[in-house]
TrEMBL record:
Organism of origin: Thermoactinomyces intermedius
Name of the gene: hutH
Stated name of the protein: Histidine ammonia-lyase
Alphabetized NCBIfam families for the sequence: hutH (TIGR01225), PRK09367.1 (NF006871)
Source superkingdom: Bacteria
Subcellular location: Cytoplasm
Primary subcellular site in the record, as a coarse category: cytoplasm
Keywords, alphabetical: Cytoplasm, Histidine metabolism, Lyase
Post-translational modification: Contains an active site 4-methylidene-imidazol-5-one (MIO), which is formed autocatalytically by cyclization and dehydration of residues Ala-Ser-Gly.
Pfam families to which the protein is assigned, alphabetical: Lyase_aromatic
GO molecular function: histidine ammonia-lyase activity
Modification type 2,3-didehydroalanine (Ser): residues: 147
Length: 510
C-alpha cells in the first residue's frame, strides 16, 4: 500500500494487505461515509428502544446471568461504565503492540458494519487513538473466547474513559494524561456502547491474522530450506515427479512438489534412484506430502480468519432497517478456536520434519558428511547442539499443540455454559509459529554449512538462499557462539527477505 494512504473502514472489505499496512506501517484509518450512516441509523434505533422502555439485553438489562434484571433508562450510562470497569481485570504480560493495533482496527471495522447501536462519534474516538499511536495496555490472559474477548476488549476501551494505561511514544503512561496531551475528552458512554465495545472476538482474531501472515512466510521458507538440505545430502527429487502428485490429487502436495522442482532447477547436487541409494528417508522423500498438508490447513484457516475480520460479533445485534433486535451468539469464538488449533498443529508439523532433516545433516551415520558439519570434530562440536535446540523447540510445540478448543468451563452463573477458549488457541498458535521459525532457521544454517562440503553446484535458487545467509554468517571453521547465527537466520525468515528473494524469481506458491 502506498505511503500515507488512508485505509477506509467500511465494515466488510478489510483484507490482509490493509491489516498489515495499518498494523506494521501505521497507515491511518478513516470511517467510510456509508459506514457512518449505518452506525447512526443503528444508534437512532437504540434511542427509540429506550424511549419505549423496551426490555432489550444489554440496553435496559444487566449482563450475563443478570440479563433478567431490568435497568432504568436513567442508569444506562452508568451501567455501561460499570461494565467496562468490572471487566477490565486481565492478567499476564501485556500484548505486543502489533496485536493491540490489530485489535483496535478489527473492532473499529466490526462496529462500522452498523449493527451495534454505537454512536459514530464514539467509534471515532477509538480511530483517533489508533491514528495518534496511543495503544491501550492490554493484559494477554483472561479471555474465555465467549462472550468473545470480554476482558482484553474492556482493557482496550478503558483509556477512552480516561482510565487505565496506554503506551505512547514508547512509554507506559496513565491514559488520562495522554488524552489531555492529544486533546481528547474522556467519553461518557451511552446505552449499549460499552457492550458494543467488548462483545467480540478481536483479540483472538488479531492474533489469528498475524499468525496467518507469518505462517505463509514459513511455508515458503520451509520449501526453500528443505531443498538446500536435499542438495547437501544428494537427495532424489524423482519423488517429486508431477505424475506421482497428480494421482493423489491433494492440492497442497501438488503445489509443494512444483515449488521443489522449481527450486532445484540447475542443481548438480541431486541424484537419481539407485545412484546413491534407492529411496530417501521420509523427511526428504515426503516433503510434498507433509508441507502440502500444512499448506491445505493454512488455506482453510486463512479463509476463516478473513471472514472473522469482517464479521459482526457482538450481542444483541440491531437491524435498524427492519426495526428488529436479535440476541444470539456471534461473539462465540469456536470458528477461530478450531481453526487456530488446526494451524498450530499444521505449523508444528513443519517444525517436526525440519528438525528430522537437521538431524540427518549433522549425524555422520546418516549424512556421510563430517560429524556435526565441522572440520576437526572432537576439538570442535560444530552444529551438534543446534540440533538439541531444535529438538527442544519441537518438543515444546508438541505440548502446545494440545487443542484448547476441546475445553470449556462454565461461567456467569452457568448462563455462559460453553465457551471456546479461542484466545488460548490464538496465543498458543503464536508461540508455536515463533518456535517453528527458529527450527527452520537452524535447518537453514546447517544446510548451508553442509553445502560447504558439496563439490557440485547447487541450483540457482538455492544458491541465492545460501548467498543471502553468507552475507552475515560465514562458514563454520571452528566453534563460536551459535545464538547470533540463529538470530540472523531467524531474521532473514521473519523479515521475508529469504522468501521474497526467491519468490521474485521463480514464483513459489503456498
Amino acid at each position: 500500500m502506498a505511503a500515507n494512504q488512508t485505509v477506509k473502514i467500511k465494515g466488510d472489505e478489510l483484507n490482509f494487505s490493509q491489516f498489515s499496512s495499518v498494523v506494521f506501517e501505521k497507515t491511518p484509518v478513516a470511517l467510510d461515509d456509508e459506514a457512518i450512516k449505518r452506525m447512526q441509523a443503528s444508534r437512532d434505533f437504540v434511542e427509540r428502544l429506550i424511549q419505549n422502555r423496551e426490555t432489550v439485553y444489554g440496553i435496559t438489562t444487566g449482563f450475563g446471568q443478570l440479563c433478567n434484571r431490568f435497568i432504568d433508562p436513567g442508569q444506562a450510562s452508568r451501567l455501561q461504565h460499570h461494565l467496562i470497569q468490572s471487566h477490565a481485570c486481565g492478567t499476564g504480560e501485556p500484548l505486543p503492540e502489533p496485536v493491540v493495533r490489530g485489535m483496535m482496527l478489527l473492532r473499529i471495522n466490526a462496529l462500522a458494519k452498523g449493527y451495534s447501536g454505537i454512536r459514530p462519534s464514539t467509534v471515532q474516538a477509538l480511530v483517533t487513538l489508533l491514528n495518534r499511536e496511543v495503544y491501550p495496555v492490554i493484559p494477554s490472559q483472561g479471555s474465555l473466547g465467549a462472550s468473545g474477548d470480554l476482558v482484553p476488549l474492556a482493557h482496550m476501551c478503558l483509556p477512552l474513559l480516561g482510565r487505565g494505561e496506554v503506551m505512547h511514544q514508547g512509554k507506559r503512561k496513565p491514559a488520562s494524561d495522554v488524552l489531555k496531551e492529544i486533546g481528547l475528552t474522556p467519553l461518557k458512554l451511552e446505552a449499549k456502547e460499552g457492550l458494543a465495545f467488548i462483545n467480540g472476538t478481536q483479540m483472538m482474531c488479531s492474533l489469528g491474522a498475524l499468525a496467518v501472515m507469518e505462517a505463509k512466510k514459513l511455508l515458503l521458507a520451509a520449501d526453500i530450506i528443505a531443498c538446500m538440505t536435499l542438495e547437501a545430502l544428494e537427495g532424489i527429487p524423482h519423488a517429486f515427479h508431477p505424475r506421482l502428485q497428480q494421482v493423489r490429487g491433494q492440492s497442497g502436495q501438488m503445489v509443494t512438489a512444483d515449488n521443489l522442482r522449481k527450486l532445484l532447477q540447475g542443481s548438480e547436487c541431486i541424484s537419481k534412484p539407485g545412484e546413491k541409494r534407492v529411496q530417501d528417508a521420509y523427511s526428504l522423500r515426503c516433503i510434498p506430502q507433509v508441507h502440502g498438508a500444512s499448506k491445505d490447513a493454512f488455506h482453510y484457516v486463512e479463509e476463516i480468519v478473513l471472514r472473522e475480520m469482517n464479521a459482526a460479533t457482538d450481542n444483541p445485534l440491531l437491524f435498524a432497517d427492519e426495526e428488529e433486535v436479535v440476541s444470539g451468539g456471534n461473539f462465540h469464538g469456536q470458528p477461530l478456536a478450531l481453526a487456530l488449533d488446526f494451524l498450530t498443529m499444521a505449523m508444528a508439523e513443519i517444525a517436526n520434519i525440519s528438525e528430522r532433516r537437521t538431524e540427518r545433516l549433522v549425524n555422520p551415520q546418516l549424512s556421510g558428511l563430517p560429524p556435526f558439519l565441522v572440520p576437526n570434530g572432537g576439538l570442535n562440536s560444530g552444529y551438534m547442539i543446534f540440533q538439541y535446540v531444535a529438538a527442544s523447540l519441537v518438543s515444546e510445540n508438541k505440548t502446545l499443540s494440545h487443542p484448547a478448543s476441546v475445553d470449556s468451563i462454565p461461567s456467569s452463573g452457568n448462563q455462559e455454559d460453553h465457551v471456546s477458549m479461542g484466545a488460548i488457541s490464538a496465543r498458543k498458535c503464536r508461540q508455536v509459529i515463533e518456535n517453528t521459525r527458529k527450527v527452520l532457521a537452524i535447518e537453514y544454517l546447517c544446510a548451508a554449512q553442509a553445502l560447504e562440503f558439496q563439490s557440485k553446484k547447487p541450483g540457482r535458487s538455492t544458491r541465492l538462499a545460501y548467498d543471502l545467509l553468507r552475507q552475515s554468517v560465514p562458514p563454520l571453521e571452528e566453534d563460536r557462539e551459535g545464538y547470533r547465527e540463529i538470530e540472523w537466520a531467524d531474521h532473514l525468515i521473519q523479515s521475508g527477505q529469504l522468501t521474497s528473494l526467491i519468490q521474485s524469481r521463480i514464483g513459489l506458491k503456498v
